[in-house]
Fold ATP-binding cassette domain-containing protein.
Amino acid sequence: MDWLENLRRSFLDWQAMADVLPSMITIGLKNTLILAAASTVLGVVLGMILAVMGISQSRWLRLPARVYTDIFRGLPAIVTILLIGQGFARIGREIFGPSPYPLGILALSLIAGAYIGEIFRSGIQSVERGQMEACRALSMSYGQGMRLIVIPQGVRRVLPALVNQFIGNVKDSSLVYFLGLLASEREIFRVGQDQAVVTGNLSPLLLAGVFYLVITVPLTHVVNYIDNSLRIGKQKASHVTSGLAEVDELENAISNPPAQSGLEHNSALPRFKGGSLTITDLDMAYGNLDVLKGVSLAVKPGTVTCVIGPSGSGKSTLLRCLNRLVEPKGGDVLLDGASILGMKPEKLRRRVGMVFQHFNLFPDHTALVNVMLSLTKVKGIPVQEAERIAEARLADVGLATRKHHRPGGLSGGQQQRVAIARALAMDPEVILFDEVTSALDPELVKGVLNLMEDLGRRGMTMVVVTHEMGFARKVADQVVFMDEGCVIEAGTPAAIFDTPKSTRLKHFLAEVL
Ligand SMILES: Nc1ncnc2c1ncn2[C@@H]1O[C@H](COP(=O)(O)OP(=O)(O)OP(=O)(O)O)[C@@H](O)[C@H]1O
């Protein structure tokens, strides 16, 4: 079995491995880690700049980012390393001295930056639009929304890809040996290769390979673990509750408000100071598409207005005009007599809250943090006080015991109630509800509607876009029927549902009832 013995001598020369081991650790491993870590850190900084440029509105920022990425991603790593390392050798010597090591790091960073920029950009762009919408509805500026929610979420999503990039840099660092590193600067591959030449067999190189695997394999597993726990969060195991149990959970909270909420609960006494809205001749268009055409409507303080109508009739757009998530083209909206068009949108949104169809909770934060984030970041309320308010609002919606759960650990109905608590925490005068039960399982709808009914009884001004005709009939003070961007009929539930006048409303009711 000569060939077996040959293979053993080539790859498993234990003595050769033992000889090279000390320098493999003290020189090779150290330098590989420095090269990879430094180029990843610099690459992350460069990549974040490129990503922000890449998603900018200005093509003068997007264009250079694109050109840079195309060049450094398109060139083979070895070409970039040689061009930078040798092309800039003289300047490098003047700045860094005789060592080519810093230029090696620079070249690796420039390559890593191009890849990391693309990773960040796709991560940030993969965050649902609703997240930024929720930030804006909670009075955050665009910058705050990006900094506090969208970018961290995007980065968390691409964490495994970033670690892959680090692993790529660990391996690419072996190419830097082309630049002629000093003996003390050799990385794992070079140490192994030099010793392989001395011993005449491949065992030192095999050992170098093992070193690469020892760095990269555990890293992949650690990052998967971290990614998983960041996504799900630490939550105590709780028994699974059925949708029916949820209805009870909320009913208990509504009829027995918890002591810590500090609220006197009496449905007969309005607790909220609802504002009024006067909408006059409101027009809105998406490009050439006229979506609202002269909508006029009066919403009295402390009343519930339900907006119904066929899909695409402009109901959501009307709501979005009321907190200026979209800007009207013409007409006006008065909030307590003052035009909202003259207000700063962030100020307006403190007074006009919004709850969305798909909840738009921040998935990386617990229910408590979801509710308190805008209190601390927008209103500047100290953390302890904000926490107290958030706990009270969560108790109001029957979720006191689930404050440390992340959205992913809550049912749709519970998530929607957190979203309502989040809107309530800002102490608004008006809350806009945009089809908030449409994404819920049937048995969870009742809990959310009961909560909304309770808010209405307590004097909150609410404008509710809904397909729940039973709710509109029971709870609304005013029902508004819209079609093709116009208010066709508005009146009491009895007038709208029992004695509709227009053919369009009759037709609509015949379809939905
Ligand atoms: N961001 C947008 N860009 C372009 N067109 C849009 C946008 N949002 C909505 N539209 C269009 O505006 C019209 C009104 O949409 P809107 O969502 O306000 O209607 P809706 O009555 O709420 O409908 P639905 O019940 O289906 O949500 C539709 O034709 C829709 O396709």
User: Anything to note?
Assistant: The radius of gyration is 31 Å. Residues 7 and 202 are 10 Å apart (CA to CA).
